[in-house]
Design a protein that fits this description.
Shape: globular
Helix content: 25-40%
InterPro entries: BBE (IPR012951), FAD-bd_PCMH (IPR016166), FAD-bd_PCMH-like_sf (IPR036318), FAD-bd_PCMH_sub1 (IPR016167), FAD-bd_PCMH_sub2 (IPR016169), Oxid_FAD_bind_N (IPR006094)
Strand content: 15-25%
GO molecular function, one term: oxidoreductase activity
Bound molecules: flavin-adenine dinucleotide, 2-acetamido-2-deoxy-beta-D-glucopyranose
Cofactor: FAD
Protein name: FAD-binding PCMH-type domain-containing protein
Distance between the termini: 39 Å
Family: Belongs to the oxygen-dependent FAD-linked oxidoreductase family.
Strand order of the largest sheet: 15-12-14-13-17-18-16
Number of domains: 4
Structural class: alpha+beta
Length: 532
């Protein structure tokens, strides 16, 4: 916990010294451009600009870094951060960065697994969206406008503040940002009922490469399609989304039951694969495998079954008894609560935590972590599951999360949005390994281990391509340099994230940003040309 803070302090002192003696001409030009582009005196732009000379530069930078792997002494830092407070600040930043050859990285909640929203190897500025976080709920219309810098927790809180019978299907982690989360697909425990966030979006506001503000009508259906899961950062800056509010019952039921190998966990999780993806769409049961010391102090695994049922306890218990008796779910395992309280439960807070916790922003430095994803189309045999467990037990600080598909997910055509992983998938796997201290030795041990685990999973998961979830960003599956986009490389990661939708994403990109201004290591390239 103390390491990143002292790192930050040393860095800020170093950088203060550096920036007092040298001034980067790129930065100077960019800073001189901004006020010329920006004429709205009600919202002065200088109040939003942080350079290394501002004492709060480091705290603003660190405030939305959610993976400590990308805040070390060697991590490149931006020349400046523009923490936009008004749409016109976003427009000016895009225009001036383009004019002066600076790359921009757009950051909303900063949860990108590989830090692409706040790190680049070339001179860059961060366009930070955390100040643009208004949420405007319209219960009569059953819709809401949400700015990109809001978090999903704030959205859940605001919906519940206006209605007890509406909800929205988005992620389980309340601090995730609307900007990245929605444009990367976005899923949560209501996805079997309502699909992804992007299946429930009605409109959006975006600043394009020319600095214009477009909505669904003026951007056209192709670009609107692309930003709903194709990754916003390739196409423009999303200012806000208009979402559909969806009905939820006034009481839902949750549970979290744990099974160890001694309690026949192998059979329960094996059956989970056959049963849970076919259950009624009102039920979602996530299975998380973690390491645990058993009563003899020996390392073993434990599987948690986390459930959400959009209905009442008695109905859930009888349904599970009938179709998934192996789980052994009892009435006393189940808790009825409002939908918004269930989002607090899914965020791992203890029972009784007030829902105001949904509005808290990230606090303190996060872990170091690395994550990967897979899709499973055929149940994994018991021997397979046992070999995964064996591999996990050789490691520490690792977990594996299985998220069931089916329900509404299987009914939406693959080309409806850029997110292609629909029918034919039983579930998605997320692997995570994490550690607490900055050490290249520790980090290498964990990264190597995860690579080996992923390797070992090959026989059980999707093939050609081996599919991956874009919101679980993973640079190992293919990545470009930040300043050189090779089409062939982009096709490698693009087909894993988007399958056949990659080609349409490329056509949209070619139309709206042919010079490839909006780019990162895993962005969508314009057609068949290498760009600088
Ligand atoms: C603890 C944790 C829990 C998570 N849980 C879930 C979950 O339950 N479900 C799920 O689907 N995902 C989950 N994720 C993944 C998460 O959805 C993605 O990391 C998502 O991209 C985060 O969005 P962000 O705005 O916080 O991230 P950022 O790091 O700010 O952005 C991510 C990407 O989107 C781009 N971007 C951000 N804002 C904009 C914008 N306004 N316009 C254009 N491009 C933009 C960035 O440049 C970057 O490429 C989780 C991640 C973490 C760390
Ligand atoms: C500044 O922004 C406000 C709010 O969006 C708007 O009402 C006003 O017209 C703008 N002023 C100028 C000079 O563009
Ligand atoms: C950063 O410092 C400059 C120069 O002192 C100042 O004009 C600006 O307002 C500061 N930025 C913020 C966000 O306070
Ligand atoms: C791209 O950036 C790298 C540093 O990451 C640099 O060495 C290289 O010269 C750059 N290439 C171009 C074409 O700008
Ligand atoms: C809505 O939010 C406001 C402000 O946080 C709070 O005072 C009020 O009690 C909330 N109302 C409901 C119904 O939750
Ligand atoms: C198991 O016990 C070891 C040794 O006491 C400890 O270091 C480790 O953190 C424990 N693991 C878990 C998952 O509790």
């Amino acid at each position: 916990m103390t390491v990143p803070m002292s790192v930050a302090f040393v860095l800020s002192v170093l950088l203060l010294l550096v920036s007092c003696t040298t001034s980067d001409p790129l930065l100077t030009n960019f800073l001189q451009c901004l006020p010329k582009q920006h004429q709205n005196f009600t919202y002065p732009i200088f109040e939003t600009i942080y350079t290394h000379k501002n004492t709060s530069f480091q705290s603003v930078l660190l405030g939305y870094i959610r993976n400590s792997r990308y805040s070390t002494l060697t991590t490149p830092q931006p020349l400046a951060i523009v923490a936009a407070k008004h749409k016109s600040h976003v427009q000016a930043t895009v225009i001036c960065a383009k004019e002066h050859g600076l790359q921009i990285r757009i950051r909303s909640g900063g949860h990108d697994y590989e830090g692409l929203s706040y790190v680049s190897d070339v001179p860059f500025v961060i366009l930070d969206m955390f100040n643009l976080r208004a949420i405007d709920i319209n219960v009569v219309d059953e819709s809401a406008w949400v700015q990109a810098g809001a978090t999903v927790g704030e959205l859940y809180y605001e919906i519940a503040n206006k209605s007890k019978v509406h909800g929205f299907p988005a992620g389980a982690c309340p601090t995730v940002g609307i900007g990245g989360h929605f444009s990367g697909g976005g899923y949560g425990p209501m996805m079997r009922k309502y699909g992804l966030t992007v299946d429930n979006i009605e409109d959006a506001q975006l600043v394009d490469v020319k600095g214009r503000i477009l909505d669904r009508k003026s951007m056209g259906e192709d670009l609107f399609w692309a930003i709903k899961g194709g990754g916003g950062a390739s196409f423009g800056v999303i200012l806000s989304w208009k979402i559909k509010l969806l009905p939820v019952p006034d009481k839902v039921t949750v549970f979290n039951v744990k099974r160890t190998p001694e309690q026949d966990a192998i059979n329960v999780i094996y059956r989970w694969q056959y049963v849970v993806p076919k259950l009624p769409e009102d039920i979602f049961i996530r299975a998380i495998t973690r390491l645990k010391n058993n009563t003899e102090g020996k390392k073993t695994v434990e599987v948690s079954f986390f459930g959400l049922f959009l209905g009442q306890r008695d109905k859930l218990v009888s349904l599970i008894k009938e179709s998934f008796s192996e789980l052994g779910l009892q009435r006393q395992d189940c808790f009825e609560m409002s939908w918004v309280e269930s989002t607090v439960f899914w965020a791992n807070h203890p029972f009784g935590t007030p829902i105001s916790v949904l509005r808290s922003r990230p606090q303190g430095p996060p872990n170091f972590f690395k994550s990967k994803s897979d899709y499973v189309k055929e149940p994994i045999p018991k021997e397979g599951i046992e070999s995964i467990w064996k591999a996990m037990i050789e490691m520490d600080k690792v977990l594996m999360q299985w998220n069931p598909y089916g329900g509404r997910m299987a009914k939406i055509p693959e080309s409806e949005t850029p997110f292609p992983h629909r029918a034919g998938n039983l579930f998605k796997i997320q692997y995570v390994t994490y550690w607490a201290e900055e050490s290249s030795v520790t980090s290498n041990i964990h990264l190597k281990f995860l690579e080996k685990l992923y390797e070992g999973m090959t026989p059980y998961v999707s093939k050609s391509p081996r599919e991956a979830f874009q919101n679980y960003r993973d640079l190992d599956i293919g990545a470009n340099l930040p300043n050189k986009t090779k089409f062939g490389t982009a096709r490698v990661y693009g087909s894993k994230y988007f399958k056949g939708n990659f080609d349409r994403l490329v056509r949209v990109k070619t139309m709206v940003d042919p010079q490839n201004f909006f780019k990162n290591e895993q962005s969508i390239p314009p057609l068949q040309r290498e760009t600088q």
